[in-house]
Amino acid sequence: MSTYDVVVIGGGITGLGVARLAARNGWRCAVLERDDLASGTSSVSSHMLHGGLRYLEHGRFTLVRESLAERYAVHRMAPALTWPCRFVAPLYRGDRVGPWRLRAGLWLYDRLAGKHRLAPAQVVRGREAARLEPSLETAGLRGAGVYTDVVMDDARLAVAVARDAAAHGAEIRTYTEVTGARPAANGGIELLAVDRLEGGEQSFTAPVVVNATGPWADALRLLLARALAPGAPDPAPLLRPSRGTHLVYPALTDGHGLVISARSDGRVFFVVPFAGRSLVGTTEVELPSPAPPDAWRPSVEEVAYLRGELARVLPAAADTPPLAVLSGLRPLLRSDDDAGAASREHAVSEEHGVLTLAGGKYTTFRVMARDVLARAAQRLGREGPLTDAAAPLPAPVAADAEPARIAEFAVAHEFARRLEDVLRRRSFLWLEPDRGRVAAQQVVPVMARLLGWGVARAREEFQHYEARVWEEETLIRRTHHAHIDNLTEAM
């Protein structure tokens, strides 16, 4: 049994941010993640550090100001994993948002950024918008707003935060699933966990346990409540998750991001330049909490929705199938608002000695960490403010390094334990035309040597990765045929 000041359950950006702050303040800390780091929500985001321009129309001014300050800070911490990007928001006749409303929103966005403002925003006429992005549909184009936000590599940024936490003493345990809990003799909590790859039960004891499992927080609350307070009523859900789906295309723009209002339902979605490609999304499908195991899987309807709305604004993309599909769950706080208007703010709750961090957005992970650890410090009787310096995060291996070098670095320094960890969350190899299949032939021997895999385990890793890619490709083929049929009928 290992003893800590705090044990964090969840290895996404939220849990890793908590571990980083705890370790930097001298706390003994462990992170328990049932899969790979950032394998859930934190690797399927819209890949932006941003204030949330669209949140302004819902009056979330404090959240936007806070997010813009964090956008600047995190970009300074990880310049190799974050890139300022100019975004174009085209205005078409019939769109929900008109020129004056957009102009006012961009002005306020810059003002809320204050000293952390990037390049100033502007509104241009239709002809200038078409010059900026020649691929835009020009029929009905009235103009465009132009502003700057930051694009990030979400998975590798989360891994960099984990590396920083580990460098300051935190233990990072991937593929370690919490299976139960019981009160510890010293008044803390003993967590029981199993290593899902190697087997064997382990236990971790701490006076403070943090539930940072994102959209799965309610499921873990239920498990821990039944273990720590048997017979008590089950806790009411804190969350109302939603599924967001993104498509990855070859580069669709001249380097700009696009902010587009969907004609069918008025929702805002993005075209984000990323790794020489374009990330298009997102959808918003409401789900119950706890969500069913396959809730993250995208639907044909979501892919068709994104393809149809994209073709309206970028006609050249109409016949181009996406390269990949991303889909994941957002941990939205429970409310009566529809999912698109639901708050991206966060909340900290305490039940049976467990602190649950619910809600929030990627950009503000440091703010969430400070809030939950302030509560934890009270439990531990620790006085004085938490030190949260915006120190540089550890640099990643070069993105264009050879696959074998990427694999070696990922195993030695980035907690990778499976082939998919390396191809999907430690590199851009999953975005190659063959989806990383050729690179896998170089990656697996390196991982087998470093991790002691036999022939059967190596074969299993190939098969596991191939099955995940095949599932994506099957969905893309199905939706592509349906999309072409719809275009033909419309002609």
How would you portray this structure in words?
The longest helix has 36 residues, at 455-490. It is globular and about 70 Å long. Helix 11 runs antiparallel to helix 12 (455-490). The strands form three sheets. Strands 4, 5, 6, 7, 13, 14, 15, 16, 17 and 18 form a ten-stranded mixed β-sheet that branches. The protein has a six-stranded mixed β-sheet with strand order 8-3-2-12-20-19, with helices on both faces. It has three domains: 2-42 and 155-237 and 343-380, FAD/NAD(P)-binding domain (3-Layer(bba) Sandwich); 81-151 and 239-339, D-Amino Acid Oxidase, subunit A, domain 2 (D-Amino Acid Oxidase, Chain A, domain 2); 403-490, no CATH class. The model has no long low-confidence stretch (mean pLDDT 93). By secondary structure, the protein is an alpha/beta fold. A hairpin with a 5-residue loop joins strand 10 and strand 11. The protein has helices spanning 13-24, 61-77, 99-113, 126-132, 154-167, 217-228, 300-313, 365-380, 403-413, 419-425, 437-451, 455-490; strands spanning 2-3, 6-9, 29-32, 48-49, 82-92, 122-125, 141-152, 171-173, 176-183, 189-195, 201-206, 208-211, 242-250, 257-261, 268-274, 277-281, 285-286, 324-330, 346-351, 354-359. The chain contains twelve helices and 20 strands.
